[in-house]
């Protein structure tokens, strides 16, 4: 087996990639150890949260809370309708939002096209022949 070890040094970290170079990709790299990166370098811009039950795989799967939450659609989905997540707080702290179509992304505080009346068309109608009640009088009607 021709396994190689590639080392990359950046300003903040040293990354070691193990494997054949043809199999390595920037998108498929999973570090062997859990990285403790600062909050600014994570994808969601949040600190790491330990949300799993510590113990065996059996305990993590079957030692669930017995309570019922009537606010979610199905009780087995933990984050249904984003309940319990802090998406807005995470997105507003970022310089660049995670998704360009994010509802919680950064929007401009000013309008691009200001709502002013520079190019408005005002119709002036003389009141001699225009009646505002919708009834017009014509001279050819005989009583």
TrEMBL record:
InterPro entries: CFAP90. It holds the Pfam family CFAP90. This is Uncharacterized protein. It comes from Arion vulgaris. The lineage of its organism: Eukaryota, Metazoa, Spiralia, Lophotrochozoa, Mollusca.
């Amino acid at each position: 087996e021709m396994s190689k070890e590639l080392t990359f040094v950046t300003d903040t970290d040293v990354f070691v990639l193990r494997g054949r170079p043809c199999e390595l990709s920037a998108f498929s790299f999973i570090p062997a150890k859990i990285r403790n990166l600062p909050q600014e370098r994570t994808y969601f811009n949040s600190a790491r949260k330990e949300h799993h039950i510590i113990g065996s795989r059996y305990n993590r799967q079957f030692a669930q809370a017995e309570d019922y939450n009537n606010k979610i659609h199905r009780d087995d989905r933990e984050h249904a309708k984003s309940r319990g997540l802090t998406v807005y707080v995470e997105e507003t702290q970022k310089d660049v939002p995670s998704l360009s179509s994010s509802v919680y992304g950064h929007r401009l505080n000013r309008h691009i096209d200001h709502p002013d009346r520079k190019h408005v068309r005002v119709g002036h109608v003389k009141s001699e022949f225009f009646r505002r009640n919708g009834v017009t009088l014509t001279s050819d009607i005989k009583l």
